[in-house]
């Protein structure tokens, strides 16, 4: 067990120290877990959740087609047309980014909407920093709202055996989607208050032309099919992954037939985020190894040593996750903590729902606290830096801290009242 713990801790330290190479760090660690015999070779493939990997791969591919179609930009045009001034443009774009991010990857959402905001800010001769920061924070805030919104949601669904509709209503109670919407609404109220002096009028020129409507149908078809199959009992464990991959392949094949250009396939394949897929696959192996060594049970005992009171453990889990995710990627953290939550709930003799939700709320929303806590924030800051705009930490925190506090506290209270 000692070797497993050392490798596990070292992996996290190196992931944090070399964030741009975290997928390689995780891969090397996974290989070492197998080489040292911590995880037997015959258990490697069974420890990898291929359903989760296929879901992410399929959704990434379909989203790439969706972005390339220019449909998100068209929708953004509509949102901006409804804006009276800079304050409401910022609030509407942030809320719109959140809605999109509930179904599309957070970073992809920022990359879709930020250029539109930059163009408008340039025309109005205003600093784009508050607008871009707001877009990134809300895109990260809404990521956990649905099964397909964020990698952490897909991991949760895999661990808790949740389907698409479970994110809306779970065990006859309000699901994560509505819990997060309440936090987003309260956050939007705060944002509008903070920007109350930004009253410059909006006058947009030009309009986006949608290149292709088919990817929109593909994305909607993916979501609807996931919903329909959520009602089917005893389906294959890999069903959701096959659905997501199926729609993506339909899109790629259709483009190949239409354009008769193999470069279409090559370009689309190159746009997939293979680093995240490799990171997740490696983490599944690492977690399988620490489970095999009994480390998960020890971490569970460590939490339980704090208290055997569900409220106390729930509170610790929410705010500990919030703080941790402000500085490290929430994907490896959530992937590690999900089995810990299961172990804790078994020891306490309770349903794991409240602890599941506490983990996701804290880990997902907590990433907004710092500019490096979530990939969407890193992407947003990078966009601003490329345009020559510096983002002082104080200015960033003036948005992130109040919004995170509002969203986390509202979710924390609602989950406790419903599931305790």
Number of strands: 2
User: Structural class, from helix and strand content?
Assistant: mainly alpha
Shape: globular
Rg, nearest Å: 21 Å
Helix and strand element order: HHHHHHHHHEEHHHHHHHHHHH
Give the DSSP E fraction (strand runs of 2 or more residues): under 5%
Work out the oligomeric state of the chains in this entry.
Answer: single chain
Number of helices: 20
Question: How much is the average pLDDT?
Answer: 84
Distance between the termini: 34 Å
Weakly predicted, low-confidence segments: none
Strand order of the largest sheet: 1-2
How is the biggest beta sheet arranged? 2 strands, antiparallel
Which range best describes the helical content: under 10%, 10-25%, 25-40%, 40-55%, 55-70% or over 70%?
Answer: over 70%
Task: Describe what this molecule looks like in 3D.
With 420 residues, this protein is mainly alpha-helical. The chain is built from 20 helices and 2 strands. The chain has a two-stranded antiparallel ribbon with strand order 1-2. Strand 1 and strand 2 form a beta hairpin. The longest helix is centred in the C-terminal third of the chain and has 27 residues, at 393-419. The mean pLDDT is 84.
Write a brief structural summary:
The chain is mainly α and 420 residues long. It has helices at residues 2-17, 22-35, 44-47, 50-68, 71-81, 86-101, 106-124, 129-141, 151-160, 176-194, 214-229, 239-259, 262-270, 274-292, 295-306, 310-325, 330-348, 353-366, 375-386, 393-419, and strands spanning 169-170, 173-174.
Task: Give the secondary structure arrangement, pairings included.
Blueprint: H1 2-17, H2 22-35, H3 44-47, H4 50-68, H5 71-81, H6 86-101, H7 106-124, H8 129-141, H9 151-160, E1 169-170, E2 173-174, H10 176-194, H11 214-229, H12 239-259, H13 262-270, H14 274-292, H15 295-306, H16 310-325, H17 330-348, H18 353-366, H19 375-386, H20 393-419
Antiparallel strand pairs: 1-2
């Amino acid at each position: 067990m000692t070797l497993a713990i050392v490798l596990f801790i070292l992996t996290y330290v190196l992931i944090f120290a070399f964030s741009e190479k975290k997928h390689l760090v995780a891969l090397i660690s996974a290989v070492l877990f197998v080489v040292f015999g911590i995880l037997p070779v015959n258990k490697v493939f069974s420890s990898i959740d291929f359903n989760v990997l296929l879901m992410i791969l399929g959704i990434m591919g379909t989203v790439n087609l969706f972005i390339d179609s220019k449909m998100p930009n068209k929708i953004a045009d509509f949102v901006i047309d409804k804006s009276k001034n800079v304050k409401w443009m910022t609030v509407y774009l942030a809320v719109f980014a959140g809605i999109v991010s509930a179904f599309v990857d957070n970073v992809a959402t920022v990359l879709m909407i930020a250029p539109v905001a930059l163009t408008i800010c340039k025309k109005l001769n205003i600093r784009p920093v508050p607008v871009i920061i707001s877009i990134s924070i809300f895109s990260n805030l809404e990521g956990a709202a649905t099964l397909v919104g964020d990698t952490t949601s897909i991991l949760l669904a895999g661990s808790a055996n949740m389907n698409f509709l479970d994110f809306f209503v779970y065990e006859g109670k309000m699901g994560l989607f509505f819990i997060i919407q309440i936090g987003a609404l309260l956050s939007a109220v705060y944002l509008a208050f903070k920007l109350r002096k930004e009253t410059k009028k909006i006058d947009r020129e030009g309009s986006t032309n949608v290149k292709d409507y088919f990817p929109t149908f593909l994305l909607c078809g993916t979501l609807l099919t996931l919903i329909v199959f959520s009602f089917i009992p005893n389906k294959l464990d890999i069903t959701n992954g096959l659905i997501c991959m199926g729609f993506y392949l339909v899109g790629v094949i259709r483009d190949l037939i239409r354009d008769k250009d193999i470069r279409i396939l090559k370009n689309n394949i190159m746009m997939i985020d293979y680093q995240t897929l490799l990171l997740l696959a490696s983490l599944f192996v690492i977690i399988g190894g620490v489970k095999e060594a009994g480390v998960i049970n020890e971490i569970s005992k460590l939490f339980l040593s704090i208290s055997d009171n569900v409220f106390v453990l729930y509170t610790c889990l929410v705010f500990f996750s919030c703080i941790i995710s402000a500085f490290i990627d929430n994907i490896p953290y959530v992937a590690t903590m999900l089995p810990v939550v299961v172990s804790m709930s078994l020891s306490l003799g309770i349903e794991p729902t409240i602890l599941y939700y506490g983990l996701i709320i804290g880990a997902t929303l907590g990433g907004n606290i710092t500019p490096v806590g979530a990939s969407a924030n890193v992407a947003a800051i990078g966009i601003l830096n490329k345009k020559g705009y510096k983002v002082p930490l104080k200015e960033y925190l003036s948005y992130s801290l109040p919004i995170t506090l509002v969203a986390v506290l509202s979710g924390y209270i609602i989950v406790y009242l419903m599931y305790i």
